[in-house]
Design a protein that fits this description.
heterodimer; A: mainly alpha; 74% helix; B: alpha/beta; Rossmann fold; 6-stranded mixed β-sheet; 4-stranded antiparallel β-sheet; 10 helices; 10 strands; globular
Amino acid sequence: MLMKKRLEQKVEFGFVALIVMLAVYMPVSLYLFPQGSVFSLSLFSINLIGQIMSFALLALALDLVWGMAGMLSLGHGIFFGIGGYMMGMYLLNVSFAQTHVLPDFMQYMGWTDFPPLWHLLSGFGATLALCVLFVTMVATLFGIVTFKSRINGVYFSIITQALTYALMLMLFINDVGLGGNNGLTGFTRILDFPLSSVSTQVGLAVVACLVLAAAYLLLRFLAGSGLGRALVAIRDDEARMRFLGYKTHVIKLLAWGLSAVLAALAGMLYVPQVGIVNPTIVSPSLSIEIAVWVAIGGRGTLIGAIVGAILVNGLKFWLTAAAPSVWPFILAGVTLLITIYMGRGLWGEAKGTLTRMVR
Amino acid sequence: MMKQQTAIYVDGLHVNFSGFAAITNLTMEIRYGEVRAIIGPNGAGKTTLLDVITGKTRPTSGQVFLDKTIDLSRHDEASISRYGISRKFQKPSIFDALSIEQNLELAIRRGRGYLDMLRSKLSGDQRRRIAEVSVLIGLAESSSQPAGTLSHGQKQWLEIGMMLVANPKVLLLDEPVAGMSDHETQRTAELITRLKSPERAVVVIEHDMDFVGQIADLVTVLHEGSVLGEGEMNKIRNDPRVIQVYLGR
């Protein structure tokens, strides 16, 4: 029993090593190996990896509230989107500081300068801090209302879908001043680095990996703590936990707030790498997709969320190019197969098999 | 026997669920130091009474007090639990995903100390208490086993153990021997008898009359939401009204 626990711990913490190795490998492969060699990763691949790592972080954030605490949020795109849009606003600020050309949509709106609120996001540090603050506020407000009223299960999920849908509709409106359905684009710089340069793009991908690794370590620590166990117990029988003296709405709120911040960070990592942020980031379907990534990988295992996000998004990127007319069917087929035959998700089943082999 | 202090005081309690009168004008007093059995046919309001005491259900009218000073109708389940009222449910409600020891750890914290929870820190006293209770409920050797692998009887004891580690003032046991073998029922009776203390009130809802006879100091009979009779087991067993309504079936 103890052997199994030690092996489990080795695997779980060892997973971080994999991510860090990837982070190291990307710049090494680019600068050390000639392009075209079997060991090299193209810039395109590196950028893709960086985007996928951001999605993996988003999936981790959902696994925290769904896998560990039992709250199926189908609206995590809201926090991802807040992070993405605030990063976009910062990037436009910084680009303007260099080019002195107003973004297209602002010119179209007839503006002569950035609106005053935008100036708050002219520095990276300020943007990061304000983003964390704002997301925490939004999450807390939602959480206080929802958890105290004991809204759970299906109703909770539907409400999160409704909210993300509403946000998307709002962002479509030009007058809201965030670029309408075209969103924010035309980024040229981040901090002091030009976004077009190779080192910046590699750097962003590396940072995405490292942030993912750090978040994973944090959640792994949380999962192994008494607080993590309390969350799992709340997931399995919230009423019982109340009768044991636990203010479950407070504990759920803590997890919810942390998850929101992680999702926002994922958004902030994603946008500079993909070069655009528009209302589709808060579309109801993206928020549902996050749950699919977590389910396929294996919810409640943390590693599963990352595996699921990598698999689905990797497949998607590959198939949209390799089999453009049939990729949705292939993806749906894979999802269906895994749901039917591997109920615990890919990593969940793998864990189970490894455990049985060790005994 | 010297009269002990009042633990739970119910006064003129009415509980109405959309027209269905679950409890009607119920008045009773439970004192520290006693083991009180509450018996009665299904639907008599026994579980509803526990629901009101633990804050799950609000009274339609009437009052429920802890120690004659704390109005239980004004608090939620978590606060009432922290005041020292512990409840054991009919079906074992332990956490299958956690180990026996982890279940006890959850229970002993009573939801307090988020930082300690994060650091998985327990005081020396808490660790000792958990060890003590593990022995008492007979699960000391397997404490790192997942609770989901326990037998039904063992799960019931684990749940009793979870209540005990928090050292409650009032112990509410809802059908603690339901589904148990004779041997397990006997062991549970011994366990409950050992739980008697001048600082603790034990309330047991049960249908097993032999079990009740063994453990209870006083028996309250509920019928259709009100108290039908109250007294020692011998007297109750021979009460014609009680026999007609419940025991004679």
